[in-house]
């Protein structure tokens, strides 16, 4: 309910990011069979890949949202996540 | 048709018409001159057109325009920008007797014009043409305006023995012309001991501004133009002595202008300094002016006293202030108080410093202050220097009184005080950063301030939330929600400042980190604005970095207790649980607070 995809603050921005990804995908490989509907979760992403939508891993999606926020002048979230979440600390 | 095109068209028509004699013109030129005048009055004249117009009025050969038209053109010559020195040179060149020169009435009108635009002239063309202007003094028709102009531009270096001679004899010949006497008085200001006797005793003109309404219109046009061209370089030239004539506000009228009278030939006075280079060259030899209190309002004197601090001078300035404050406390000078605050604000802004005498004065004033000039007061107080011991003394002396006067339970008053504290904290941080490295002066003032503001910030958030939820009945949701965002961002402004101090290794040594009050973190975290949440995350990240360096620096971790750090880690855990791990309100993880929800409500 309060994740990046679903929280009232970030939901719209997260969806906008997903749409961007889908648009890029569409430009590269032609039409997508399905588009994602509703807030993204780990399982909906997996289902989306199976059904012929974009193939996006959960981690990549979340990182993408952070990047999207950063591009829109909201770098604070990424900053905090990068210095707290051990998985992210290893990546950088 | 835009008014600028109108101006251009009528200008071309007038220039064409001027080449023909009145009789041989097909139509009357009057309407064109009239449209030209009104177009100039509307929007002012741009440099290119100004050059053409000045050429038109300063040449008499082949110019058949009648006196009245020329006069009306000059009357409406409102320059929209700064006036280039070429224009001034052209005007100066057309003065005097000669076949090719315009008539003396036109010359006098042009001189009046120069007087009125004196403050917008670029460069020092006038000062350079001083000798030319001076030698025209024997022309009676020009004398009154000329004397006024010379009185405005005379500097010490212009006052020469032969000029004094000429002036004295001219004054004798003309039977003490009041204008000449006025100019002589200006000269006498520079060399009081040389010019003596009856010469200056007679009736002197006061040199009033020839046309204040014109001046007002000119200011309007100039500021409108500066705004449209986004040309914001209308800053006060900081290397000149400020003169009230030059667009000063009424507040500065309180403080005397810079005048130096005890000067001799070898000494340099502030009035002579024209630019930064001059100030540097003469720094050691500058004579102090009569009234040192002008330091409050005069940018040049401010610099001089900063670069050449002088205990005696500062003492003189503070004596003035103290006596002024006594007058205020005993009498009822409300408007004056506002003026003084305004000036103090200017001083604090320019020097980034508030002398102790101000502080004690403000502390006195705050007792009886009626709340007028609140913005100035708050800004002045944000420059209060960092106390060496702790915040409580300062708080009792100043801020407690301030809060008692300003806070009235409305969100706007709380926000105003919060803004003041934010700038105060920023100024303290800047002050500490400017200190030489390695000085360890641990003061508890900053942590005290943050602790104090913690309470205020929480209050602000709650009153703002209450204020925006109650009037929700009148469907004013839009404005109230933006209000909340504005409040949040004001609160975050403060904490961003505080977190910068916490994460800066140099500042950290001066101030212990004070963590945010927990309710505040969660109130902000559950805001509906992504910017608010993001900024909160940024603040938390910086605090975390600050704690990390602090812990790494001192292994014994005596500075912060484990419980304290864990309390902070709990925030991080909760925020991450919500945003990243999709486990909101989880209280099982180490340190997590479960967003402070009581256990039963999160279980359902």
Structural commentary:
Chain B: Belongs to the CENP-I/CTF3 family. The complex is a heterodimer of chains A (92) and B (604). Chain A is mainly alpha-helical and 92 residues long. Chain A has helices spanning 11-29, 42-50, 58-71, 76-84, 86-91. In chain A, helix 1 (11-29) packs across helix 3 (58-71). The longest helix of chain A has 19 residues, at 11-29. Chain A starts with 10 loop residues before the first helix and ends with a helix. The mean pLDDT of chain A is 80. Chain B is an all-alpha fold. In chain B, helix 4 runs parallel beside helix 6. Among the domains of chain B are: 3-153; 236-385, no CATH class; 386-434 and 443-511, no CATH class. Chain B has 27 helices and two strands. The longest helix of chain B has 27 residues, at 477-503. In chain B, strand 1 (268-269), helix 13 (276-282) and strand 2 (286-287) form a beta-alpha-beta unit. Chain B starts with a helix and ends with a helix. At the A-B interface, helix 4 of A face helix 25 and helix 26 of B.
């Amino acid at each position: 309910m309060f994740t990046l995809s679903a929280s009232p603050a970030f939901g719209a921005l997260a969806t906008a990011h997903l749409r961007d990804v889908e648009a890029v995908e569409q430009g590269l490989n032609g039409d997508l069979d399905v588009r994602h509907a509703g807030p993204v979760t780990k399982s909906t992403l997996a289902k989306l890949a199976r059904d012929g939508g974009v193939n996006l891993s959960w981690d990549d999606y979340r990182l993408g949202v952070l990047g999207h926020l950063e591009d829109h002048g909201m770098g604070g979230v990424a900053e905090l996540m990068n210095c707290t979440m051990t998985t992210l600390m290893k990546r950088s | 048709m835009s008014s600028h095109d109108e101006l251009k068209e009528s200008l071309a028509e007038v220039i064409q018409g001027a080449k023909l004699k009145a009789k041989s013109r097909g139509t009357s030129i009057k309407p064109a001159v009239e449209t030209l005048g009104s177009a100039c009055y509307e929007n002012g004249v741009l440099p290119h057109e100004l050059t053409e117009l000045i050429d038109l009025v300063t040449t008499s050969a082949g110019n058949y325009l009648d006196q009245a038209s020329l006069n009306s053109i000059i009357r409406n010559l409102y320059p929209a920008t700064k006036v280039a020195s070429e224009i001034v040179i052209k005007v100066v060149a057309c003065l005097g007797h000669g076949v090719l020169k315009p008539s003396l009435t036109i010359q006098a009108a042009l001189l009046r014009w120069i007087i009125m635009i004196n403050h917008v002239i670029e460069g020092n063309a006038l000062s350079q043409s001083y000798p030319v202007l001076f030698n025209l003094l024997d022309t009676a028709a020009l004398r009154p305006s000329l004397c006024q102009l010379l009185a405005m531009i005379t500097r010490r270096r212009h006052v020469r023995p032969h000029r004094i001679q000429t002036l004295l004899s001219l004054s004798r010949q003309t039977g003490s012309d009041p204008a000449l006497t006025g100019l002589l008085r200006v000269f006498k200001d520079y060399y009081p001991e040389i010019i003596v006797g009856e010469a200056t005793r007679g009736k002197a003109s006061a040199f009033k501004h020839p046309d204040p309404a014109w001046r007002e219109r000119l200011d309007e046009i100039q500021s409108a133009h500066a705004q449209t061209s986004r040309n914001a370089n209308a800053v006060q030239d900081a290397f000149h002595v400020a003169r009230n004539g030059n667009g000063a506000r009424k507040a500065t009228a309180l403080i005397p202008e810079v005048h130096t009278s005890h000067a001799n030939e070898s000494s340099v006075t502030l009035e002579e300094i024209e630019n930064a280079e001059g100030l540097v060259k003469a720094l050691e030899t500058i004579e102090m002016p009569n009234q040192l209190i002008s330091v409050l309002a005069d940018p040049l004197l401010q610099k001089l006293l900063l670069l050449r601090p002088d205990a005696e001078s500062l003492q003189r300035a503070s004596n003035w202030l103290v006596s002024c404050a006594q007058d205020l406390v005993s009498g009822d000078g409300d408007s004056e108080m506002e003026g003084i605050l305004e000036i103090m604000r200017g001083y604090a802004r320019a020097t980034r410093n508030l002398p102790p005498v101000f502080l004690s004065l403000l502390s006195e004033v705050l007792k009886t202050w009626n709340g007028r000039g609140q913005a100035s007061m708050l800004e002045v107080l944000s420059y209060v220097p960092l106390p060496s011991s702790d915040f409580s003394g300062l708080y009792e002396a100043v801020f407690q009184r301030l809060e008692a006067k300003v806070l009235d339970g409305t969100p706007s008053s709380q926000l105003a005080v919060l803004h003041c504290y934010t700038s105060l904290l920023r100024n303290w941080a800047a002050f500490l950063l400017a200190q030489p490295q390695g000085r360890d002066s641990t003061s508890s003032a900053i942590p005290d301030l943050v602790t104090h503001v913690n309470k205020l910030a929480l209050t602000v958030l709650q009153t703002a939330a209450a204020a925006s939820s109650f009037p929700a009945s009148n469907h004013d949701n839009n404005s109230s929600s933006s209000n909340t965002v504005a409040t949040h961002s004001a609160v975050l402004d403060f904490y961003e400042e505080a977190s910068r101090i916490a994460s800066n290794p140099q500042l950290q040594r001066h101030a212990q980190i004070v963590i945010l009050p927990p309710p505040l973190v969660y109130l902000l975290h559950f805001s509906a604005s992504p910017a608010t949440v993001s900024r909160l995350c940024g603040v938390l990240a910086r605090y975390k970095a600050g704690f990390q360096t602090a812990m790494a620096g001192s292994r014994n971790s005596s500075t912060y207790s484990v419980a304290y750090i864990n309390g902070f880690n709990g925030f991080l855990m909760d925020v991450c649980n919500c945003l990243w791990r999709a486990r909101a309100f989880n209280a099982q993880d180490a340190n997590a607070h479960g967003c402070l929800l009581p256990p039963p409500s999160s279980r359902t």
